[in-house]
Design brief:
Layout (H helix, E strand, L loop, with lengths): L1 E3 L2 E3 L11 H5 L2 E9 L2 E2 L2 H14 L10 H14 L6 E10 L12 E9 L14 E10 L13 H12 L4 E6 L4 E4 L3 E6 L2 E4 L10 H10 L6 E4 L4 H4 L4 E6 L3 E5 L1 E2 L2 E2 L3 H16 L1
Parallel strand pairs: 7-8, 7-15, 11-12
Antiparallel strand pairs: 1-2, 1-6, 3-4, 3-5, 5-6, 8-9, 10-11, 10-13, 13-14, 15-16
Length: 282
């Protein structure tokens, strides 16, 4: 079952019109979340990111769009799919209503919620030595505020994913126009060198990731490491001790190989344990 503006309909009956602005112009946002036994992980962060993104895109936020309302809509959709007491992936799509060409006729919005089952309630590290990445250099991320949002314009991620599949890679790293590493295809990137942990700043064009925020908070409480939000050059990748990717569905994903360089995952494991503790105590 799919939640379409509060109405539960079967996936077969869920349709969007050709005039849907998310389809026609990419005039849409989405928020992907992990839910474990009725608990939306980092729900407050997700909610406020969505609200901030809607304001940036000048969408009209309905008065009903409170934190409690949207949480209840998510739980209602999970219940309709027999996933209320399971682990699930939830995606909230928000698009401006039909009407107009580039200039919309209205700032009002439609929303849709789709869910699917996941396996592990807590984050784990895959025991593999084959997670290999490379740079995707066919196209570049544009620095700026819009690149930090989860809009429906993800063509570069799609093309990068095709490139990764064609070249036997598990992921690719994206660059901005200044040839700085911005993020992975499906998450933020962290680099470990000694006791320094770096992640690209939002100003470089990386996604304002929820797990990125959580790890920045965690690292702020660990004296053994120094966190730097600073640009990462491709030349730094082969000098790093560790590289890992973060997103709310997978948690922390260690990169094992970049070109001829192989990496450890010691810091990734330490941070993953602290992340799971944070989830249990929340």
């Amino acid at each position: 079952m799919v939640n379409s503006n509060g109405n539960l309909v079967s996936a077969e009956d869920a349709r969007i019109a050709l005039q849907n602005r998310g389809y026609a112009y990419g005039d849409a946002l989405f928020e992907t979340m992990k839910v474990v036994n009725r608990k939306i992980l980092f729900w407050e962060d997700h909610y406020f990111r969505l609200m901030a993104s809607m304001r940036i895109l000048r969408m009209e936020i309905p008065m009903s769009f409170t934190m409690d309302f949207l949480r209840d809509e998510v739980l209602k959709t999970l219940e309709a799919n027999d996933l209320l007491d399971n682990t699930a992936r939830v995606r909230i799509n928000v698009n401006r209503v039909e009407g107009g060409l580039y200039t919309p006729s209205s700032q009002e919005i439609d929303y849709h919620i789709v869910v699917s089952e996941l396996d592990a309630p807590f984050y784990t590290l895959a025991e593999t030595d084959t997670y290999q990445v490379d740079l995707f250099k066919d196209h570049y991320v544009v620095k700026g505020l819009l690149s930090t949002l989860k809009t429906n314009n993800k063509v570069i991620n799609v093309l990068g994913s095709i490139y990764a599949r064609e070249n036997g890679l598990q992921n690719c790293l994206l660059l901005n126009h200044e040839k700085m590493v911005v993020e992975a295809l499906n998450g933020n990137i962290f680099l470990v060198k000694g006791n320094i942990i770096k992640t690209p700043p939002l100003e470089d064009g990386c996604l304002k990731g929820i797990l990125r925020k959580q790890l920045i908070d965690i690292l702020g409480s660990i004296d053994a490491y120094e966190l730097q939000e600073a640009s990462i050059s491709p030349f730094e990748l082969q000098k790093a001790d560790e590289l890992f990717i973060t997103n709310v569905i997978s948690g922390i994903v260690p990169i094992k190989k970049y070109r001829k360089k192989t990496y450890e995952d010691t810091v990734a494991r330490e941070l993953l344990a602290k992340l799971n503790v944070r989830i249990r105590l929340a």
